[in-house]
Amino acid sequence: MSPVIDGLQYANWSEKIFREMRAGGVDAVHATITYHENFRETVLNIEAWNRHFERHPDLVFQGFTADDITLARETGRTAIFFGSQNPSCIEDDIGLVEVLHRLGLRFMQLTYNNQSLLATGCYEEDDTGLTRMGREVVTEMNRVGLVVDMSHSGERSTLEAIDHSTRPIAITHANPADWHAALRNKSDTVLRALSGTGGMLGFSIYPHHLKNGGACTLAAFCEMIARTAERYGIDNLGIGSDLCQDQPDSIVEWMRTGRWTKRIDYGEGSADAPGFPPMPDWFGGNADMPNLTAGLRDIGFSQADTDALMGGNWARFFHDSFGPAK
Q1: 269: which of 45, 113, 209, 316 is 20 to 30 A away, CA to CA?
Q2: Alpha carbon distance, N-terminus to C-terminus of the chain
Q3: Per the structure, how many domains does the chain have?
Q4: What is the pLDDT, as a whole number, of residue 96?
Q5: Contact by Cβ (8 Å): 212, 220
């Protein structure tokens, strides 16, 4: 049986959640450690994770290579792979790409929602594509084995990253825009370019990315996955839940606003409901991961295809992506 892997979470990490990961059979998680933090602040977040690993060695440990997925399964634990949702952690220093990779960073978005030093975010009116530094950083990320993630990037920037990267990139947490037209969801043009180069798409369960939001049914979500697999093939699809389990509503302000504005930026939310939107009743946390497996089988996926979607495809991608370029 293939592993169960979640391609993106930003939970309020605790022993409770780690135990729910085990209850849900989650073998590996790509965990966000940076939104707007600089390098030193990112290191402090790694220190906090080190305390989790020290206190709960029977539940979680840091993952560095795809072999750690196997180790997680053999020891009944969850491997945690670090990622950043913003290149703020490398500041303006390309040398920090390799430093952070050595510390365990395995994914880095070239943008969050705004323009960065590397590329354009999906909330900017004008997408100017990869910057000069952006192209250099993508090349360096390819060299060391740090995955280029374009989940929050604009269309031109995403297409240029796919084209410039010599290794497959990832969109770790998004859905097709023709299913639900959120700014963060991706066009057919992007998804064709992504799948055509071996890049991975992680389907998001964050309500703003779902048709009908938190009222989206499990059947509707799995039907969307089935239609996407028919269009682009199943080999490069997985789950990237974008789960923010147990986070207080105040975290939304940090995610959207960071330090770049003095006013509250509601971003993907609404001025009437600035906090986290209600999750679907079939996925409130890690313990609900088996619901996804059941939903995929119910919609008509074979056991082999369900295993691939629930983690097998991510495991292959991790194996091919986390080491130095050959």
Answers
A1: 45
A2: 29
A3: 1
A4: 98
A5: yes
Q: What is the mean pLDDT of the chain?
A: 95
User: What does the pLDDT look like over 156-210, one tens digit per residue?
Assistant: 999 999 999 999 999 999 999 999 999 999 999 999 999 999 999 999 999 999 9
Q: How far is CA 210 from the centre of its chain?
A: 16
User: Which of 43-57, 223-237, 252-266 comes out lowest in average pLDDT?
Assistant: 252-266
Asked whether the beta carbons of 201 and 8 are under 8 A apart, the reply is: no
pTM above 0.70, yes or no: yes
* CATH number of the domain bearing residue 273: 3.20.20.140
Asked if residue 75 belongs to a domain, the reply is yes
Structure tokens at 198: 């071996």
Question: Would 326 be classed as within a structural domain?
Answer: no
301 has a pLDDT exceeding 50:
yes
